[in-house]
Amino acid sequence: MKLLLRLAAKSAWNRRFTLGLMLLAIALSTTMLLGIERVRHEVRAGFSQSVSGTDLVVGARTSPIQLMLYAIFRIGGATNNMGWDSAQALARNPAVAWTIPISLGDSHRGFPVLATNDDYFRHFHYGDGRPLQLTQGKPFADVFDAVLGAEVAARLHYKVGDHIVLAHGMGGMGLTQHADKPFVVTGILARTGTPVDRTVHIGLGGMEAIHLDWEGGAPLPGLHIDAGLVKKFDLTPKSITAVLVGLKSRARVFALQRDIADGDGFKEPLMAVLPGVALDQLWDVVGIGENALLVVSGMVVVVGLAGLVAAILASLGERRRELAILRSVGARPWDVFLLLSIEGLGVMLAGVALGVMLLSVLLLALGPALAARFGLALQPAWPAAGELQLLLWTVAAGFAASLLPGLRAYRLSLSDGLTPRL
Question: How far apart are CA 421 and CA 86, in angstroms?
Fold first, then answer.
């Protein structure tokens, strides 16, 4: 065995350029396989950690997934709002410990604007129960105060004291601006890796103030209320988008959900969803995309293995004389088969290891940029149990694929290599 290993090493060194290309192909395949797998897990973790400690999300009746998408992930828009009276009635329920009213609909340079109250900073948690923290400034206190998520501040280069103008509605260019009522940045939140990072937070009174002279989604002609006069008006919201609810006892969650669905104590039809259940339903919906990513990962590996087999088979033509000399000095067909199999296994192991290192280097270099632009907290790390299993399957598949050139070499006759073809 030692002789075979030494022969395999020397033979590989003599063909180092060709084997180097094969190593690179396998390393790139492994890097892409692990990279897609980590992005998939990070996206799933990001979704599941976007909210913590919230027992119910209550809003106007729609689909549970849609309610979660716009209330937690700021994706899409609410088809209907719920009345402020209903939110107040919900807060007075004896089973409820706290509520966080939220109102969505406006934006600032592509980032969603969320109107809420002080309870948001006291009770909203994410991840494994971590509270929101400010890196600069303080929460909003006045009507036109705003607190920025970390990504908003970083990408738009805002700091405490800057003035920002909100746009009416969500979307791209062409939105009507609330230019007559600018907001002042009073605080910037620490990065959370959740949709909070990409959100501009204002008070419910601020949301009402910028729409005092609006009706039906457009400014009222001939009516303008100056920013300095808005406090003379009642800034209590008429309706909001949703309410995040925390209960005194989680044992009451199903009873309260049923009461809300039955309309007990409310003047309008509402619905309450459990975040965990809604997230499971959401993943059932996006499971097709997730499976597509897995198929892409598998195809990348298959292409890499096909390249490995093709390269070894092509090299057999160049190695016919080498293999024939081995046979002439006493090597058995089985020894030749074993030699090529060991070489294939070595190339696979080295390629996979190189791919893991390449991924770590890429994540080290690009991790901050990915976190800033896409909110993906990808860091170099030792492969997790699931990733190790994938790598083992990759090596096993590569080893099985390398048996094919070994079988072909096994069948080569002595005269095939020693008799030059004319």
Answer: 90
Amino acid found at 221: P
**Would you state the pLDDT for residue 23?**
83
- Sign of the Cα torsion 119, 105, 265, 252 reads negative
* pTM (whole model) above 0.90: no
How far apart are alpha carbons 249 and 120 in whole angstroms?
20
pLDDT of residue 405: 74
> Which residue reads 């959900």 in tokens?
257
Q: Name the one residue in this structure whose structure tokens are 């002609």.
A: 221
Residue with tokens 């075979």: 4
Contact yes or no for 57/67 (Cβ under 8 A):
yes
Burial level of 367, CB count in 10 A (0-12/13-18/19+)? middle
CA-based torsion, 113, 115, 119, 124: positive or negative: negative
Backbone angles phi, psi at 252, to 5 degrees: -90, 0
Average pLDDT for residues 60-80, to the nearest whole number? 82
**Contact between residue 15 and residue 311 where contact means Cβ atoms under 8 Å apart:** no
Encoding tokens for residue 159? 């700091």
pLDDT tens, residue by residue, 364-404 = 888 777 766 666 667 788 888 888 888 888 888 888 877 87
Coil/strand/helix, residue 162: coil
The enclosing H or E element of 163 equals strand 163-164
- Does residue 285 have a pLDDT over 90? no
The confidence score (pLDDT) of residue 422 equals 46
DSSP 67-79: HHHHHTS--S--S
Question: By C-alpha distance, which of 325, 339, 307, 345 is closest to 407?
Answer: 339
Phi/psi for 329 (5° steps) reads -95, 10
